[in-house]
Design goal:
Helix content: 40-55%
Shape: elongated
Order of helices and strands: EEHHHHHEHHEEHHHEEEEEHHHHHH
Number of strands: 10
Largest sheet: 4 strands, mixed
Length: 542
């Protein structure tokens, strides 16, 4: 394709009309100083067993000096340049779509545009892991094919967004995600229809690392539990022994009395406690050796992974497979009746900038969720609660549905992060993020309960309530809808759920303590639930 033959479009007039004129010669535009060309850049964490207790409050949402790419007249040509015949086809249909005045023709061209564009995008996806022009990355990241078809205020908004993952959190734009998969930083997503590529050394090492990480975390959890047990025994022994040294005076001769019955019992019990301390310490020593061994194996593997990444070869097969999965994710986020047009146009943005799913906005929503549902990302494993933040993929679609793609890795069910998908352009971002989080909660609880999911825990209690109410349809959809009400209404004291569902959620998905304290003062319903907590806390079965 000769890129000089492409048409350029002036900025849209208020009426939305466009006028074509000849393009000037394309040129590569270097990233400004405020934009690093590393795309993914820093080695971001995979979300496994984060030490943080929740997602942070966002204090910086925009760059101090916005870039000018979306005001560059060569942006469109840079996106399509050097991409061959498929780029020419995309341009031809796109030009017809913009210039036709017949609504029927416009609708037809709109439909014709979708398949060639996805083929074009799959070609760009292969370049996500390497050095490529920022306009191409922005197309993958935001769906911005031509700045002229979005309003000036939207161009300014996107131009001010922070392009790097400065917070080092597991929230990824599409170009970052594809690069992480292609270079082995993140394991490819699982799919029943798509075989996960494992020929890349980094991918194999990543899978092995997840298994070793699960072994290490499990050993560490047991070690801490045993240490706690030993500490309690030592405390009890110390109290018994200290009591032996307490003597009361006997008469006026300056001598002390003999041991009282309680001290004699304490000495006898001390002998038994000493045996228990020795036994616990022997078990602790065994766990400590296993811990050192697991740590050494993990450190050795990490060193090997770092060496591999120093001379990393991009696995294009993994990127191709992952892009196919991402396309399925995009379709699912939109649904059959949604808007499947794959590029950003201002006329399809039906909400303000606060509802655009940027990295910072999504982190803000997740922080808000964790401030209400404090255990939302915690997983119970071998007597210990671990916070495991999920991996989050931001897809540039007009979808309304956020969802969980994987609850955890099949090789490390205990401590590996789940994966959730968030469409970037919904009408209500908070509800969309809530839906994804609810889906994650449901799937994790169901998978952990295995074939007892209809009988035990959160899913079992909810299933029994579902049957009791004789509801029809997908139980998970009911759960997600109820969870959204739980977080948006019930958390503010507005009763929207049934008494049974409210009781289940209060028990298995408890609000933060400060939320409970506030709600118990609102009315008798929440006061009664709060009292149940106190009663369970005093019983052995809590």
């Amino acid at each position: 394709m000769n890129v000089n033959d492409l048409d350029n479009y002036e900025e849209a007039t208020p009426s939305g009309s466009f006028s074509p004129e000849a393009l000037v010669e394309a040129k590569e535009t270097d990233a400004p100083s405020s934009v690093s060309d590393n795309g993914f850049g820093k080695k971001t964490g995979d979300g496994t067993l984060k030490t943080a207790t929740r997602f942070p409050e966002i204090t910086k949402r925009f760059e101090e000096e916005p870039h000018e790419f979306f005001h560059d007249r060569d942006y469109y040509k840079t996106v399509l340049g050097e991409e061959g015949e498929i780029a020419q086809r995309v341009h031809d249909i796109f030009q017809k779509y913009l210039t036709t005045k017949d609504p029927k023709d416009r609708s037809a061209y709109r439909q014709q545009f979708i398949l060639p564009f996805w083929d074009f995008l799959s070609k760009l996806a292969r370049k996500a892991a390497g050095k490529t022009a920022w306009p191409k990355k922005f197309l993958l990241r935001f769906g911005i094919l031509h700045p002229a078809i979005i309003k000036a205020e939207d161009r300014d908004f996107f131009g001010k967004l922070i392009v790097e993952n400065e917070l080092n959190l597991p929230v990824y734009y599409l170009d970052e995600w594809l690069k992480a998969v292609g270079t082995g930083v993140i394991r490819p997503s699982a799919n029943d229809e798509t075989k996960v590529a494992t020929s890349n050394t980094n991918t194999k090492l990543q899978l092995l690392q997840e298994r070793l990480k699960g072994k290490f975390d499990g050993t560490l959890s047991l070690l801490k539990s045993k240490e706690h047990e030993r500490t309690e025994l030592e405390g009890a022994l110390k109290n018994k022994v200290n009591a032996v040294f307490e003597h009361t005076p006997a008469g006026d001769g300056g001598v002390s009395s003999n041991y009282i019955d309680e001290q004699r019992r304490g000495l006898t019990e001390s002998l038994e406690l000493i045996k228990q301390v020795f036994k616990t310490d022997r078990e602790y020593a065994i766990l400590l050796r296993e811990y050192y061994q697991a740590q050494a194996e993990l450190n050795a593997l990490q060193k090997k992974i770092d060496e591999e990444r120093a001379s990393v070869q991009v696995n294009l097969g993994a990127i191709d497979a992952e892009f196919g999965i991402v396309r399925q994710m995009s379709k699912m986020s939109i649904g059959r009746q949604g808007n499947h047009f794959p590029i950003l146009i201002s006329e399809y943005l039906h909400s303000g900038h606060l509802n655009i799913g940027t990295r910072e906005s999504v982190i803000t929503m997740l922080s808000r969720i964790e401030s209400i549902d404090t255990e939302v990302f915690y997983r119970y494993y071998k007597s210990k609660m671990n916070r495991i933040a999920p991996l989050i993929i931001l897809v540039p679609t007009y979808g309304e549905t956020g969802f969980c793609w994987e609850p955890f890795d099949r090789y490390n069910r205990a401590t590996s992060p789940g994966r959730i998908v968030i469409p970037m352009y919904p009408r209500n971002l908070f509800v969309t993020v809530l839906g994804a989080v609810a889906d994650l909660r449901w799937q994790v609880a169901k998978e952990k309960a295995a074939h007892y999911w209809m009988e035990e825990g959160l899913t079992g209690r909810y299933f029994q309530c579902f049957q009791k109410q004789k509801l029809k349809g997908d139980i998970k959809e009911y759960f997600i809808s109820d969870y959204i009400l739980w977080m948006t209404k019930e958390a503010d004291g507005v009763q929207k759920l049934s008494k049974e569902v409210r009781g289940i959620f209060w028990r298995y998905m408890p609000f933060a303590q400060e939320v409970k304290e506030r709600l118990k003062k609102r009315n008798f319903v929440y006061q009664e639930l709060y009292q149940r907590d106190l009663n369970r806390a005093m019983s052995d079965g809590y």
